[in-house]
Amino acid sequence: MIDYHVHPNYSLDAEGSLEEYCEVATRKGLREIAFTTHLDSDPATDDCFVIVEGRRIDVQSGYWLEHYEASVAEVADEYRERGIEVRLGVEVDIYPGVAENLPEAFHRTEFDIIIGSVHLIDHRAISAEEGANAVFSKYAVEELGHNYFSIMTDVIESSFINVLGHIDLYRRYGETHYGEAIHSLWKPHMKLLTEKMKRFNVAFEINTSPWRKGQSETMPSRPILEALIERGITQLTLGSDAHRPEDVGAGVDRCLKLVQEMGFPSPVGFKKGVPYTISVL
Ligand SMILES: [Zn+2]
Ligand SMILES: [Zn+2]
After folding, report:
1. How far is the CA of 241 from the centre of ligand 2 (A)?
2. Confidence at residue 280, expressed as pLDDT on a 0 to 100 scale
3. What is the pLDDT of residues 73-90, one digit of tens each?
4. Which residues lie at CB < 5 A from ion ligand 2?
């Protein structure tokens, strides 16, 4: 079992140190985990900071990235001996202009995996109910789809992303506002998105966090997974999006069965940005 989407306590919304995650992951028998702390850099929001040893640090400061890289390397060395590979990753919040706003130190950090995820529309987080309601009340469902997917398709061209995170995050609060229409919002955008994914060699993740929130579908949902496989996009990672140690690896086995049944090849892992097949048996 692997988990390629894990949030340690470098973000305010996550609890658990690198060591605590590694302990739980080792106990659960995981073979690989990737720490993918949030990197939020939209200057129009007030979230552009990280937490290092209890202190708030500006996301633009090189200090935290050096601290993060060195600390992940340290636990990776320690836990390799205990049978688990630990990867250095990041979940970059993507929005128009993100490539120009990344911290300078980002470009010299040797990440194994960079996930690019849309959380913000018009600088509001649709991953939270309040932000979602504010955004959804401004847009018809087609406009929301256009705004959301054009962020992804445009940012892919900046070429710093290995994996697209939770492709249909808009569903989390979308159904309450838009009803059933939210579930087909992706359809007009899949052609361009998959063309760009192919051209820029970008994989996608299957995020199991909705299962812990009582929802029946992973992100992306099964119809999107079917569309991806039909269009030949099969390079995928699996991640729990754990924000606390006890959730590491949650749902990944079940998810693996799902993708195998659907005919996807084995998931990939990443080392220094290079994908490789995970032999899952
Ligand atoms: Zn996310
Ligand atoms: Zn996440």
Report:
1. 5
2. 63
3. 999 999 999 999 999 999
4. 91, 241
Is there a contact between 25 and 248 (Cβ–Cβ < 8 Å)? yes
Q: Which residue has the tokens 């998931």?
A: 267
**183-211 pLDDT per residue, tens:** 999 999 999 999 999 999 999 999 999 99
CATH class of residue range 2-277:
alpha beta
- Find, among 89, 93, 100, 95, the residue nearest to 122 by Cα: 95
Determine the Cα–Cα distance for residues 219 and 243; give it in Å rounded to an integer: 16
CA of 91 to the centre of ligand 2 (A): 6
In the chain, domain spans? 2-277
Ligand 1: distance of its center to the CA of 81 in Å? 30
Q: What is d(CA 14, CA 247) in angstroms, rounded to the nearest whole number?
A: 11
Kindly give the distance from the C-alpha atom of residue 116 to the centroid of ligand 2, in angstroms, as a whole number. Answer: 10
